[in-house]
Design a protein that fits this description.
two-stranded antiparallel ribbon; single chain; about 170 residues; 8 strands; 5 helices; globular
Length: about 170
């Protein structure tokens, strides 16, 4: 009985940090030795998730192609032309064996190619620790204009997941 109670308490405590659909996640900042914005190395803060609907990709570089179908379909939708829409790509640098300097070089070129996307380096798994996002995974999160989480998927998105994500975007854009 004590083991069950202890396990339940541990799971409840861990869940306090997890992102929950329908709620605004705990405020988190990525800066300094933890990483930051690719374009200028300034801090990224989750309180920036407002005034636009945001689609966030939180990705292990080794898993970058897992949700390529969703990424390509998202580009084709051209949501920026339809309303207040933003995209964020946060790269979990601590999740890969690849050297940071190589990934950072790739991210700089991506930032130039896609200047409207916010690219962020997470060098120490900040969002894994603070929001309990999937580590060594491809995570997709969609936030409404008030910063409330509307959708979360860790791992490969199914066709149903993609349809649900696009429906939420279109209803809230």
């Amino acid at each position: 009985m004590k083991i069950k109670t202890g396990l339940a308490a541990l799971l409840a405590a861990l869940n306090l940090f997890a992102v929950t659909v329908g709620e605004q996640p705990k405020q988190v900042s990525i800066s300094g030795e933890n990483g930051g914005l690719v374009k200028d190395a300034k801090a990224w803060n989750s309180n920036m998730l407002h005034d636009k609907l945001y689609v966030m990709f939180y990705v292990d570089p080794d898993e970058k192609d897992v949700n390529e179908a969703f990424s390509q379909a998202l580009k084709k939708k051209e949501y920026r032309k339809k309303g207040a829409f933003g995209s964020i790509a946060i790269i979990n640098l601590a999740a890969t064996w690849k050297p940071n300097f190589i990934i950072e070089s790739i991210l700089k070129s991506k930032q130039k190619e896609f200047p409207k996307t916010i690219y962020v380096k997470d060098k120490n798994k900040v969002l894994v620790k603070e929001w309990a996002l999937g580590d060594d995974a491809s995570n997709i999160l969609i936030f409404d204009k008030n910063g409330k989480l509307m959708f979360y998927k860790s791992g490969k998105m199914s066709e149903d997941d993609m349809q649900k994500a696009f429906q939420l975007i279109e209803e809230n854009l």
